[in-house]
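Researcher: Going back to the complex we discussed earlier. I've cleaned up the inputs and rechecked each line, so this should be the final set. Can you rerun the prediction on the complete assembly and write out the structure?
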Amino acid sequence: SQQGEEDPQALSIQEGENATMNCSYKTSINNLQWYRQNSGRGLVHLILIRSNEREKHSGRLRVTLDTSKKSSSLLITASRAADTASYFCATDGAQKLVFGQGTRLTINP
Amino acid sequence: EADIYQTPRYLVIGTGKKITLECSQTMGHDKMYWYQQDPGMELHLIHYSYGVNSTEKGDLSSESTVSRIRTEHFPLTLESARPSHTSQYLCASSDRQGWTDTQYFGPGTRLTVL
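Model: Rerun complete. Updated structure for the full complex:
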């Protein structure tokens, strides 16, 4: 079974609102990464959080990691139409980078 | 934008044809990967390489083969394409040997086998 699972599978919000996506995983990890994929394109790395970190920021992105609950969340603040994409978490706990199914985020104008 | 390129971007071919999907990167990365992704689904690792003359199979069984004769080039070949091979193929690279490092992705090749 897959290592990372995102929740929700799809999220639709109004421009300017905040979007929160969650990722749960099963085994211990060294780090967790979040990637974005625009429709029909490859993935773009957004942020990496190490297992000894609890929170990390990058611009409008905020990632948290709770290793006791084996979960992470990605918050995008003040969303924009350009944020419309699929967002994937990726974990390394199984000696390889394993991606979840992703959360499809739609920002409505 | 990462300096990793894939050609063709779209390919529609008939059953039984031999095809090669090209992937090149100009970042000097040692490690390269091929993933298969169906629409709206997760990525599955099908091949990877630690460097020149190194190729390994990923966790999803694939009838494709790969080669790594040059650091910058990691082509994927299907000897006889079938409709079940219809999917998107993503190439990626990273600059360290570990699995934990950032991967840089190409734009993908969307393959349709009729």
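Model: Worth noting: Chain A touches chain B at residues 2, 30-31, 33, 35, 40-45, 48, 86, 88, 92, 95-97, 99-102, 104 (CB under 8 Å).
Researcher: Good, that matches what I expected from the previous run.
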